[in-house]
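does this look right to u?? adenosine-5'-diphosphate version
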Amino acid sequence: MARLVIVSNRVASPKERAAKAGGLAVALREALGKRGGLWFGWSGETRPNAPAEPKVVRSGKVMYALQDLDPEDQRAHYAGYANGTLWPLCHYRLGALSFRRTDWEGYRRVNAHFARALLPLLKPDDIVWVHDYHFILLAAELRKLGFEGRIGYFHHIPWPTPEVFLSLPSHAALVRDLAQYDLVGLQTENDVRALLTYLSTEARAWIAPGGVVGLNERRFRVAAYPIGIDADAFVKDAAASVGSEEEERLQSSLAGRVLAVGVDRLDYSKGLPNKFAAFGELLNHYPQHRSRVTMMQIAPLSRGEVAEYRALRRELEELGGAINGEYAEFDWVPLRYLNRPFPRATLAAIYRASKLGLVTPLRDGMNLVAKEYVAAQDPDDPGVLILSRFAGAADELTGALLVNPYDVEGMAETFDAGLTMSREERRERWGANMIKVQTNTIHNWCERFIADLSQIADHFAEAPEPGR
Ligand code: ADP
Ligand code: F6P
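got this back:
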């Protein structure tokens, strides 16, 4: 069996406990552990002119290779092009998009630097699986250095429609290098359609059935691989939380009131101001819920080095304060707003105790929180998932109440519908969602992508000859 090499900007350190590392990191570590492999990425350290010599640490069957970065390169790559240009672009936030040539050059330098550091560790028959928008150019840089083996890429965030993608000044160069992967995985069929349309109309590529693309001399495949979660782990953690000390603390703090929960990184793609406004609207227009519903928004701080994220933090503090100022009673605070991370077991307990799961991003690749909320419910008396139609998860979780997060009054109306829904309807909707969450797990997702990448030559052989 070929060795698996995973590349990601953040690497869960070998010492990190599984529960803390998060679902994706655990699944990748498991996939690596099974077949033995290498995990390569940024060390989290910066130092001036860091040479392309990763620190290599072995833990069981997995080798970790961690590369330092020059501080200015790291800024241009992470805060600059990855999170100041690509993130807003892929989340349809053109107003927040900043493009600087120095950032684009820094992004290219970091991709080239990582390729130089990785190449000496690679064997010709390795399967290399690159994760996310930080490394779109990595395959091209590895090819320049002579690596001819299989390289796959998974884009965890949305792929924008051609009209939006064309706003990126470097769109043509980015896609020319993306074509150096053998397999490009996206979250949804919508994303696949968006990229294939760009490729055929703008890049003049030919597309064969099954998503095989011919661009200049290259052939590669584009397909959807909707990511899942470790459903069993959430089921177990949530069930174990019943009667725990933590659950009792939570219930006693609620004093019999209903809980509605939101769990999102503090990111402008998550639509948090709209969610807060919709909760305010619920209390305003449906006064029967005052003093009866508590909303808890868990929003760990993220990417504070980017100005938009700092501005969002200030905005939410103001909005949250205004809601509490207007509606709080001496024995009830409507909105609990927490900026801390929590262990998975605590999140599972909070999901289970919540009658509403509020997942209302303006745009999201998949949104794992939606799936975690479903997995954590009591099958006998489940809560209601309120889900943005602009989250990738909306394709699969058809039992959710779908909302348009730009329609604040419509969201408040849907919150009310969720709070008053019959138990029978809740069970039916939850059942439809849970089947999807349990069928398409993170483990199946990993296996499917790796199997397709391993056999990529078969897909190319089956595709008809070019003929646009
Ligand atoms: P994104 O990748 O954009 O952050 P997702 O919803 O797909 O959004 O994934 C977020 C992941 O981070 C989920 O697995 C969720 O449980 C985890 N997470 C979010 N907030 C917290 C928190 N406060 N503590 C611990 N984990 C969190
Ligand atoms: O969903 C995109 C993503 O990059 C995830 O892969 C990651 O868990 C999350 O955003 C956090 O981002 P960062 O690494 O910038 O903190």
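The pocket of adenosine-5'-diphosphate (ligand 1) is lined by residues 22-23, 263, 265, 298, 300, 341-342, 347, 366-369, 372 (CB under 6 Å). idk if thats expected tbh
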